[in-house]
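Progress note, sequence design subtask.
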């Protein structure tokens, strides 16, 4: 189970890094990639939320075990 959490945390962190590099975010409403300028609030929510979730998933198993 801890290995699964580490893997999911790694995938989420890679998504956040990709979004930061390309300055785009996946929008389910239109089912396409859109720029940071088109959806600034959603972009920030994805970056902040994804970073926090990734840290929690990666650091949690390492600190508890």
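Output:
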């Amino acid at each position: 189970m801890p290995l699964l959490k580490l893997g999911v945390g790694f995938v989420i962190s890679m998504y956040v890094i990709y979004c930061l590099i390309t300055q785009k975010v996946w929008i389910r409403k239109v089912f396409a990639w859109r720029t940071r300028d088109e959806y600034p609030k959603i972009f920030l929510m994805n970056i902040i939320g994804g970073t926090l979730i990734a840290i929690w998933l990666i650091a949690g198993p390492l600190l508890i075990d």
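DSSP finds two helices and two strands in the chain. Work on this subtask will continue into the next period as scheduled.
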